[in-house]
Q: What sequence folds into this?
């Protein structure tokens, strides 16, 4: 069997390439044609003859149909992705992503479901693995001891109390009231005290020989005649200034007298009269427990010398009748409006 | 040439069966070998063109009836075809089918001869 020389084969392959044969088919067709050429050479034809013969059978059209049919055959195997990406850059990545989409999806769904179930069943699994603590399981014991909580208290310092000496007691004579009774029930008793008896004593439940010749009826406590400055209780400071008292202090002689006094003593300051100023000056002062005026000051003035004039006149005032609280005279702050009015 | 085309017309339908049948006998063949074999056996009555043969071979290969192996012969890659198990089964059924078909055709074409038989 005659063998084709390499250059002849080259000739054939060039012919096939020129006609755009599918590269996948190329070796097979080349072999086929080469075999055919060899056969013809064997039969005694010249290569040129054989070649032209081959070209006749394997004309461009046939080769083209062969390629197309092969492509069709492959297309049946191709997926949509292959068709979409035909002639495009497959190594870019999108093709791989698309190709692997189904398997990726499957895997992710499987993983997701597994993971989800695992999370859901975790409490159950945990409960199975870790047994419930038994009632006898006691971690530690704590002994409770009762604690007595005592209020920290310091007893108030005992007030030194001097025992009051024997209260001066007025001498009393028994004086009983009498009920009206039938004669037979009347008990004969001592005769009632006579008026003479009461000259030196007071009526009482019993006849007691007093140790004092006092005849006043005095409440036994507080400022007893004999209890000189003996404070039994801690007393509030004496000089307390009240704002409001039961019995307000008053100008001796009443409001009219006070108005008269003011009218007499008040002089309209020149400055004020020049500036045509009028109005009220509110003066605040304290009426002492002895009725004296102290601590005179202007609460709200009108200026132009009026405030000073008002203060001056108030200071001039004679003693007032002191205000009283619970019957005792006390210091009281008093507010007085002084009216300056042009005539 | 005219006879050739008419034979091609029939060959087209039976080509698959012919190829399968040949491979069932020969175990391993390459494209040109098949054409030569057919030509020899039929005395040139049926000439397979490679334009018709190769698509059929590829189709059968894709269907899983044939497997190929490439062997380098004389500096060229030669592709050998052989039957797979489903391929040999297909060869049998297809040959049977064809025979029945040919019988039927014969009945159609020469009913009188059948009557004489």
A:
């Amino acid at each position: 069997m005659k063998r084709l020389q390499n250059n002849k084969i080259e000739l054939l392959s060039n012919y096939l390439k020129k006609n755009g044969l599918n590269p996948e088919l190329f070796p097979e067709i080349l072999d086929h044609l080469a075999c055919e050429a060899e056969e013809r050479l064997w039969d005694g034809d010249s290569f040129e003859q054989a070649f032209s013969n081959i070209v006749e059978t394997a004309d461009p059209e046939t080769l083209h149909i062969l390629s197309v049919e092969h492509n069709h055959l492959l297309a049946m195997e191709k997926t949509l992705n292959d068709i979409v990406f035909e002639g495009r850059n497959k190594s870019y990545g999108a093709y791989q992503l698309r190709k692997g989409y189904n398997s990726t999806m499957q895997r992710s769904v499987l993983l997701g479901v597994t993971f989800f179930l695992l999370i859901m069943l975790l409490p159950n699994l945990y409960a199975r693995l870790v047994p419930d603590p038994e009632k006898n399981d006691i971690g530690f014991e704590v002994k409770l001891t009762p604690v007595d909580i005592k209020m920290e208290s310091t007893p108030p310092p005992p007030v030194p109390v001097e025992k009051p000496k024997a209260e001066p007691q007025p001498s009393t004579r028994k004086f009983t009231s009498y009920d009206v009774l039938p004669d037979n029930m009347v008990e004969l008793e001592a005769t009632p005290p006579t008026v003479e008896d009461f000259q030196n004593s007071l009526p009482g439940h019993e006849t007691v020989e007093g140790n004092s010749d006092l005849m006043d009826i005095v409440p036994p406590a507080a400022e007893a005649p004999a209890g000189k400055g003996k404070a039994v209780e801690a007393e509030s400071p004496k000089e307390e200034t009240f704002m409001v008292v039961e019995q307000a202090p008053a100008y001796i002689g009443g409001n009219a007298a006070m108005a008269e006094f003011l009218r007499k003593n008040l002089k309209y300051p020149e400055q004020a009269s020049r500036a045509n100023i009028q109005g009220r000056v509110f003066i605040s002062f304290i009426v002492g427990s002895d009725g004296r005026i102290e601590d005179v000051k202007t609460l709200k003035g009108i200026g132009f010398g009026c405030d000073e004039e008002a203060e001056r006149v108030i200071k001039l005032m004679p003693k007032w009748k002191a205000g009283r609280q619970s019957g005792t005279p006390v210091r009281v702050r008093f507010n007085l409006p002084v009216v300056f009015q042009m005539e | 040439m005219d006879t050739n085309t008419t034979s091609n017309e029939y060959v087209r339908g039976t080509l698959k069966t012919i190829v399968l049948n040949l491979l069932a006998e020969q175990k391993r063949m390459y494209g040109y070998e098949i054409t030569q074999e057919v030509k020899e056996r039929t005395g040139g009555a049926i000439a397979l063109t490679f334009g018709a043969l190769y698509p059929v071979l590829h189709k059968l290969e894709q269907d899983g009836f044939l497997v190929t192996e490439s062997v380098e012969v004389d500096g060229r890659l030669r592709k050998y075809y052989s039957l797979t198990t489903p391929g040999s089964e297909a060869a049998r059924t297809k040959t049977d089918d064809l025979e029945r078909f040919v019988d039927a055709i014969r009945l159609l074409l020469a009913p009188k001869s059948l009557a004489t038989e």
User: Anything to note?
Assistant: The beta strands of chain B are 29-30, 66-73, 76-83. The first helix of chain B runs from residue 2 to 26. DSSP finds five helices and three strands in chain B. Chain B has one domain: 2-111.
